[in-house]
DNA sequence: ACTTTAAGTATACAAGTGTACGCTGAAAAT
DNA sequence: ATTTTCAGCGTACACTTGTATACTTAAAGT
C-alpha cells in the first residue's frame, strides 16, 4: 500500500509537535529546548526538522496555536459547567484548575512565553488569552449590562488572577489545591462585586438588570 | 597603595553582578545567559567566576536578593507618596510603573523567574513579593479593619494585577502607558470596593471604621 | 624574611549546538 | 517509461559551552 506523500509529511510534522510538547515540563521551558533535542525525541534526523519548520521559533508559534485550541475547548467545557452549576466564577476557576492538571505542558508553554523574551511569542500568547477575555467580557456585558470597556477591564483582571492561581497550583501539594482554588474564587468575587458597586450608579436609570454578579 | 584583598574580591564580585544585570533585557532572560558570557561582560576570565559563585544558579539567587532590596526601596517611596497624595491605590500603581522604567532589568528578572524552570528561583521571587503583599495586607488590615486572612487575599490579588500591568507596560508605547496605569487602578479599585462590600457585613457591630477603601 | 593562601589567568578538552552540502529512494508528474 | 520532486539522512564544520588542571602573583600570616 502506497501512502500519500502529503499524509506522510503531516505525520512527521505531528511527531515533531508532539515531541516538543513532551519535552516541556516544570523544569524545562520551550526556549531551553534545542532543535537537535526535539529531533531526537521525535525520532528524526536533525536536518529533517527544516523540512517542516523554518526554525524553532516557527515551531514554538505552532505550539502556542495548538495550545489555543486546547484553551477554547476548555472554554466550551466551562460554559457547560456554568449552565449546570449556575455560578460563573467557581465553575470557571475549577474548570481551569482541572485543565492545568490534565494538560500541564500547554499551560507551561503559555505561562512562560507570555512573559518570555520573544515578542512574537508574547503576542501569540496574548492573542490566545484575548479569546478568553473577550468571551468573559461578553458574558459580563450581557448578564450585568455594563459598558463594553468596563466589562473588559473586569474580565482581564479575572483572567490574570485565574492564570496566576494556575501557576501557583503547579507548585503546590494536592492537599493545598482546594485552598488555592477558593482563594482565586474569593478574589474574583471581590472584583465582580466591586465592579458592580462602582457601575450600578451609572445604570441607575435602566430598570431591568439583575444587580448581583455571581450567585 | 596596597588594596585590601577582601575589598578587591568584593569589587570583582560586584563586577559580575552588575555585568549580569546589564545583560538582562526584553530579549534576554537570566536563564539564557551563559557563565562565559557574564564573565566576558564583567571583564574577567571564565574560571574566575568560580572564585565568587558556585554556579550560575547561585549568582541568579543573589540577583533576586538584590532585586528585593530595590523593591523594598520602592515600597518606601510609595509610602511617602501615599502620605502626599492620599490615595493608596493610584500612588502605589504609579510608583510601581516608574520603578519598572527606571530599573527594568530588575523587573525582567523577577517577572520571568517568577514562573521559570527553577524551583529555587520561583521560591526566591515569591519570597520577595511576599514583602509587598504582607506590607499591603497590614495596611489594609489597619485602615479597613478586615481579618488578616481576608486582607492578605485582597493584597495578593492587587500585587498580581500591578505586576501584570507592569509586564504589559514594558511592551506598550509610552503613549499608551497612562491608559494602562488607569486600567490597573480601576482593577484595584474594584477589588478594594468588592472586598469592602463583602466584609462590611462581618464587622457591622464595630462602630469606628471608615468604610471607603480608597479616596 | 619566609611561607601560606587565594584571586585571577591560560590552556585544554569533551560535549553540545545550528546548519550547509550532497545523497538516496520513492512518490508524483510528465 | 522516464523524469522531476522532495522528505529524510549522513557527514562535516565552525562555534559555544562548562569546567578540570596547572600556573602566577601579590596580600596575609608566621
What does this structure look like?
- The structure is a homodimer of 215-residue chains.
- With 215 residues, the first copy, chain A, is mainly α.
- The first copy, chain A, folds into 2 domains: 1-53, Arc Repressor Mutant, subunit A (Orthogonal Bundle), CATH 1.10.10.60; 56-215, Tetracycline Repressor, domain 2 (Orthogonal Bundle), CATH 1.10.357.10.
- Chain A has 8 helices and no strands.
- In chain A, helix 3 packs across helix 4, helix 4 packs across helix 5 (104-113) and helix 4 (88-102) packs across helix 7 (148-171).
- The first copy, chain A, starts with a helix and ends in a 15-residue tail after the last helix.
- The model of chain A is unreliable at 205-215 (pLDDT under 50).
- At the A-B interface, helix 7 and helix 8 of A face helix 7 and helix 8 of B.
- The structure holds a DNA duplex (30 and 30 nucleotides).
Put simply, the count of helices of chain A is 8
- Please identify which CATH superfamily of the largest domain in chain A we are dealing with: Tetracycline Repressor, domain 2
Order of helices and strands of chain A: HHHHHHHH
- Give the amount of beta strand of chain A, in percent: under 5%
Question: Any key phrases for this structure?
Answer:
homodimer; 215 residues; mainly alpha; Arc Repressor Mutant, subunit A; Tetracycline Repressor, domain 2; 8 helices; 74% helix; disordered C terminus; DNA-binding
